[in-house]
Amino acid sequence: MITDHINAERANAKKAGKSGEEHNAALLRYFNPAGSHPSGIMGEDPQGVPYNLLPLLAQVAVGKREKLLVFGDDYSSKDGTAIRDYIHILDLARGHTVALDHLRSKHPGVRAWNLGTGKGSTVYDMINAFSAAVGRKLPYEVVGRRAGDVLDLTANPTRANKELGWKAERTLEEACADLWRWTESNPQGYRQEPPREFVEKLMKGRK
Ligand SMILES: O=c1ccn([C@@H]2O[C@H](COP(=O)(O)OP(=O)(O)O[C@H]3O[C@H](CO)[C@@H](O)[C@H](O)[C@H]3O)[C@@H](O)[C@H]2O)c(=O)[nH]1
Prior knowledge:
Layout: H1 2-15, E1 25-30, E2 32-34, H2 53-61, E3 68-71, E4 83-84, E5 86-88, H3 89-106, E6 110-115, E7 121-122, H4 123-134, E8 140-143, E9 152-153, H5 158-164, H6 172-185, H7 196-206
Helix pairs in contact: 2-4, 4-6
């Protein structure tokens, strides 16, 4: 829809003898957003039952949920669990600002970019990485596959790397540590004041 709109605006401008190059749009293909703001004061605050792997693991870690249900261990991956491309939310956020800069400076029209790391991790990789951040093993149980899930969704971020000069830089370990800091320190999510020392640290860093 946005593609049609931009192309129509460009075509109209051309008819009117103008370049139309001010009409641009970025189609940003998110892979699996992970982590929280490293300050520990901003993060995902799911209402009701979360759908995604990391928020569910976080609820297991704080005892809101007894265990994680692993949806299938019979995929053709190294450990049988499905593969996704988990990207730290700060890398994802920076992907937006560099894409906007690109639209402003290069006027590409409509252009799509994959915002992923290019590295796939299995469900077990994620359980292990998040357990390491928490400091203890998190309970899980293997159940059947979830309808609609596929084996592997890993990005090819080459175009974004080349054209936007953008690359995901933060590791899975950082994403897990950041998510855990947010979860552990804000058990009521946004329905509580964030820890004062985190806010002070963030404000100091801004000066
Ligand atoms: O309780 C859970 C939740 C997830 N998973 C697995 O963990 C992986 C990641 O799952 P999830 O966090 O739900 O991400 P995706 O399955 O990649 O789903 C994302 O990508 C889909 C399309 O690609 C979108 O439809 C969804 O909204 C979006 O969350 C998948 O292999 C799931 O089977 C589990 O084993 N147990």
